[in-house]
Each structure stands twice: as C-alpha cells, then as structure tokens.
Design goal:
The chain is an alpha/beta fold. The protein contains eight helices and six strands. Strands 3-2-1-4-5-6 form a six-stranded mixed sheet, sandwiched between helices. The N and C termini lie far apart (41 Å).
Amino acid sequence: MADKRDKLPTKSTSAEVDAFLAKVAGLPTVTAPGSRGRLMFAMDATASREPSWDVACDIQAEMFKETAELGGLDIQLCYYRGFGEFFASPWFDNSAALLKQMSTVHCAGGATQIKRVFEHALKESRRHKINALVFVGDCMEEDVDQLCDLGGQLGILGVPAFLFHEGIDVRATHTFTELARLTKGAYCPFDASSASQLRDLLGAVAVYAAGGRKALTHFGKRKGGLVRQLTDQMAKT
C-alpha cells in the first residue's frame, strides 16, 4: 500500500466541489434522443477500503435509486481486490439486480488494478458506447504513464472518467487528477464528513449519463444543494 510519507491531510473543500460541478456542467449531452445511457461503476475493493465499504454501498444504492427512476440507464459493476482478482458484472437495467450483486462483495487485501479497469472500459466502449466511467478508490500503486496512456485512449473515444478519491494519498491525487483531465472527466476527493456530498455528486453524474442536461436539471430542482448548483452552472454554459 502507499507509504505514509506520500500522504497529507486533505478534505473536500467547497472550491474542489465547485470545480467538479463545473467540469460536469461543461460536458456535452451524452445520450441521443430515445437511447439508453451506459454507466460503468468501478470500485477499489482492497482491504484498505473495508472500514468504509458499508457507507459506500449506501451511497451507491442512492445513486442507483435515482437513475432507476429515469428508466434509461444500464449500469455495470466492476471491482478489483485480492491477488489479481478483477470482476465485471453483466450490464443491469434495474437497481435491484445490481444491488443484489453488490451485496455479495467483500474486501480483500491486494494491490490496486486501475489499469485493468481502464482496459476493460476501453474494450466495452469499443463494443458499445459507454457514456461515463465512475471510479471510487483510495490509492494508486501502478505505473502512472501506463494509466495515462489508457486515459488518453478513453478521452479519444469520448468516455469521461469521474474519479472519486477517498482518503489522503498524494500519489493517487496527482494520478486521478491527470486521468480526469485526459478523459475530459472530473476528479473530486471525499472523506467521511463529505459522504452526503459524494451521494449527491454520484447521483448527478449517473442522472446526467442517463438523460443528459434536461434530466439533470429536473434532478437538481428536486434535490437542491450541490446538484442545484450544478444545474445553475449549466444554465450559464
């Protein structure tokens, strides 16, 4: 795992959240009229994330609930853990089936495998367009140049990556920020105190992937708070 010397105390700040919202607001509509959005949801399931896994599942459940109401989003769950274990579920069109799959997941010690996440996203998007990739993780232990090469390829295919960083790993911060830039996505750190922020931000990305700006505008009016800020910013672009 990452060395303690590579860590510093950071939290989500209002400026960081605003920057994330602005990134999402500036993206073009990702779905054509009458088509279904496709969201790949990838998670780090290594041992370091075990203490917050239940909280993360609750947050993700809320995201799936919001997108299910739109009736226009397919979601694939991906995660890595243990010794080289990588899992990708089928594409689900309802939250119940996906949450049932999530409930079987337990964390296991091992190194990060973000490279496999990005390789899988490339493979899937070449087969059938992915509208967004969401990744939640706390550290990065891989070759930065290899990851950035894959990120650039996702950017060319038009697959924005939204990277949510739990914790204070500096190397992960730098890498995730660069991957967001290369894919034309966005990066946002979070911690236990900003779980509600993460819930709303994840919901905003998922709703956007499913229905574009119009759906996100309605979502913002209903949810208020950070998501309403997002729709207000979008009105100015």
